[in-house]
Amino acid sequence: MYTSTPTGEVVGLSDRIVAALSGFVREPDSRNVEYTTAPFTRYEPLIYALLQPRRRLRTYLHNLGNYTLLPGSTLPLVGQNHFVRSDPGNHYHSYIERTYGTRVVTASIHINVGIPDPELLMRACRLIRMEAALYLALSASSPFLEGKATGSHSSRWQVFPRTPEIIPLWESHAHFIAWTEEQLRLGTMQNVRHLWSSVRPNGSNRPHNLNRLELRICDLVSDPLALLAITALLETRLISLMQDPVNLDPLHASPLSLDQLAEIANQNEAAAARDSLDAELIHWQTGSSIRARDWIEALYSSGLPLARQQGFSCFLLPLKTLLREGNEAQRWLSHLKQGASVTDIVVQSIEDLAALETELERSLGLEQVA
Question: How confident is the prediction for the chain on average, in pLDDT?
Answer without folding.
Answer: 95
